[in-house]
Amino acid sequence: MRTADGKGVVRIIAGEFGAFIGPGSTHTPIVYAHASLEPGAHLSVPWNEDYNALVYVFEGRGHIGDGEIKSQQLAVLGAGETLQFDADDKVEVLFLGGQPIREPIAWYGPFVMNTKAEILEAVDDFEAGKLGSIPAEH
Fold it and tell me: Considering the chain, what is the average pLDDT of its residues?
């Protein structure tokens, strides 16, 4: 989708972002979108009040409401009906959110699971080469 001002493109990966639905299939309801915005771009989309919201800027600088966010920063937003982002320069940004599932979290390095036992199993699977490879081998 393009922003209303024509200064940006949003790729919806999963979930509903405004009037658009991404192709990704998930086990719990989420939103996952990547936007490329030109300087001065304004993005405003309806946001599900039951979802949390995270905004991660890969590159550039912009504003969420009165708050500035810049490259390699993450903003955690509270409940709201609309998500608004204004680009100060060229920006690459991820919009993430979903219904909180309130499950326990365990992590080690890049692994995030629910329990320490699952982390140990994931590390064993990684070391055994069971997690696949990039590029994928067919």
Answer: 91
- Indicate whether 124 and 60 sit together in one domain: no
pTM as predicted: 0.75
Helix (H, G, I), strand (E, B) or coil at 17: strand
63 and 130 together in one domain: no
Q: Give the per-residue pLDDT at 110.
A: 87
**6 burial level (CB within 10 Å; 0-12, 13-18, 19+):** exposed
Domain that holds residue 109: 103-138
In sequence order, what are the beta bridge partners of 85? 43
Give the DSSP H/E element, type plus range, for residue 129: none
In angstroms, the CA 1 to CA 77 distance is 23
Give 9-14's long-range contacts (Cβ < 8 A, gap of 24+). Answer: 9/35, 9/36, 10/34, 10/35, 10/43, 10/95, 11/35
Distance separating alpha carbons of residues 104 and 36, to the nearest angstrom: 33
Please name the residue ranges forming H helices in the chain: 116-127
Strand pairing report for 91-98 and 52-59: antiparallel
